[in-house]
């Protein structure tokens, strides 16, 4: 897939089981496995998190254009955590370059990030609750883009439909992730070097447990 391809339409029947029958959510188990994955690849995960921090810091010191550039990079950078986790779960060794594979899917990831940001913001402005619903519902959208090469809108809708089936369970998982990163931020911010990759791995593991990995190559 080229960086500026829009992605493809995927047969929605592939997700009927999750949408119609539901699934079990084991939030604490996802986080435990996320920690184990992080522990086995500490150098790679911490190193990439530092790269993200440096890019963020450089953009904050520049003008508005720098912030816009970082915003456009956020989605493929975040996807990099998931792709590394997917490779590990597929029995492959992680290389530092794997964290940048998200840029192969730049356009659909960027469009998904932009559309999700707008819709969640509108939902929060209107009645707050719709925004929260959508923020949780779109949790797996970026992973669907990189796993299925899916176009951004279908990825958002498939994610929302799957999450809606067990929305409250996923919501509490998101709350645990938020608390984990809050603890990392309170630890002089240094703790985020651990909590961000651990939580990213946990979400990738949740995706794999709930939806399953479709691709073996990223």
Runs in which pLDDT lies below 50 for 5 or more consecutive residues are none
C-alpha end-to-end distance: 9 Å
- By secondary-structure content and strand pairing, the structural class works out as mainly alpha
Gyration radius over CA: 17 Å
Give the SSE layout.
Layout: H1 16-21, H2 27-40, H3 42-61, H4 64-89, H5 106-126, H6 129-137, H7 141-148, H8 152-165, H9 167-186, H10 192-210
Helix pairs in contact: 2-10, 3-4, 3-10, 4-5, 4-10, 5-6, 5-7, 5-8, 6-8, 7-8, 9-10
Describe the 3D structure.
- The model has no long low-confidence stretch (mean pLDDT 91).
- This protein has helices at residues 16-21, 27-40, 42-61, 64-89, 106-126, 129-137, 141-148, 152-165, 167-186, 192-210.
- The protein is an all-alpha fold.
- The chain is globular and about 40 Å long.
């Amino acid at each position: 897939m080229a960086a500026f391809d829009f992605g493809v339409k995927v047969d929605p029947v592939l997700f009927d089981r999750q949408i119609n029958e539901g699934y079990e959510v084991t939030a604490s188990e996802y986080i435990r496995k996320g920690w184990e994955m992080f522990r086995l690849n500490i150098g790679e995960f911490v190193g990439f998190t530092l790269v993200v921090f440096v890019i963020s810091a450089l953009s904050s010191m520049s003008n508005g254009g720098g912030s816009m550039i970082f915003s456009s990079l956020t989605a493929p950078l975040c996807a990099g955590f998931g792709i590394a986790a997917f490779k590990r779960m597929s029995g492959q060794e992680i290389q530092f370059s794997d964290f940048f594979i998200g840029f192969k899917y730049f356009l659909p990831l960027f469009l998904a990030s932009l559309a999700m940001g707008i819709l969640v913001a509108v939902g929060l402005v209107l009645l707050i609750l719709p925004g929260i619903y959508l923020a949780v519902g779109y949790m797996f959208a970026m992973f669907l883009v990189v796993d299925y090469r899916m176009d951004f809108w279908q990825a958002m809708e498939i994610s929302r439909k799957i999450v809606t089936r067990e929305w409250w369970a996923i919501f509490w998982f998101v709350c645990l992730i938020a608390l984990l990163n809050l603890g990392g931020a309170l630890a002089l911010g240094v703790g985020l070097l651990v909590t961000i990759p651990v939580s990213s791995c946990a979400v990738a593991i949740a995706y794999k447990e709930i939806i399953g990995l479709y691709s073996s190559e990223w």
